[in-house]
Amino acid sequence: MVDTWAIAELMGHLTLAGRITKPGDNGGLWQIDIPDADSFHTEFFGSQSVYRIRIVSEQIARAYVSHHEMIEYNAPILTREEHEAEMDRARELIENLRREMDKLRHALPAGIVPDNEFQGIDRFEDPGEYEDDDEDSDLEDDL
């Protein structure tokens, strides 16, 4: 049997490359043996999920796999420690930007920028003033 190497593009933006076996040999499923160092791992997929299959040389399929590593479905993209480090870095950056903004605001001549211009939510009306709607209902009763 001659090995057929291919790059299979499947629905869901999944692309697999490796040694491919046609349906019929595996109960109607395509089989692709994906090279992994000195061995292979096997994936099966149905014909309905195939968008395109390109027949390529073994060298092209192996090169594709080496540049498009598969990540396990449930593997974290970042470790918890990496996530926390990035969050700490982001908090520090935000704090530095706030300090820089305060310096710039205080360097401006008085009267050019209102005190609360850069305070974010503080420049909006207090939502608490809308909580007491009883006065409106009293007016409606009077009418």
Describe this structure as you would to a colleague.
This protein has 143 residues and is an alpha+beta fold. The protein folds into two domains: 4-67, SH3 type barrels; 80-121, no CATH class. Helix content is 33%, strand content 27%. The chain is built from three helices and five strands. It has helices at residues 58-67, 80-107, 134-142; strands spanning 4-10, 14-21, 29-36, 39-46, 50-56. The protein has a five-stranded antiparallel β-sheet with strand order 4-3-2-1-5, with helices on one face. A hairpin with a 3-residue loop joins strand 1 (4-10) and strand 2 (14-21). The longest helix has 28 residues, at 80-107. The protein is elongated. Residues 121-132 have low confidence and may be disordered.
- Enter the CATH topology name of the largest domain: SH3 type barrels
| N to C succession of SSEs | EEEEEHHH
**How much is the average pLDDT?**
76
| CATH architecture label of the largest domain | Roll
* Biggest sheet layout: 5 strands, antiparallel
Radius of gyration: 31 Å
Quaternary state of the chains: single chain
Secondary structure tally: strands:
5
Helix/strand class: alpha+beta
Q: Strand-residue fraction?
A: 25-35%
Distance between the termini: 92 Å
Strand line-up in the sheet with most strands: 4-3-2-1-5
What portion of residues is helical? Answer: 25-40%
- General shape: elongated
Identify the CATH class of the largest domain. Answer: Mainly Beta
Helix run count = 3
Which stretches are low in confidence, meaning pLDDT under 50 for 5 or more residues running? 121-132
Total separate domains: 2
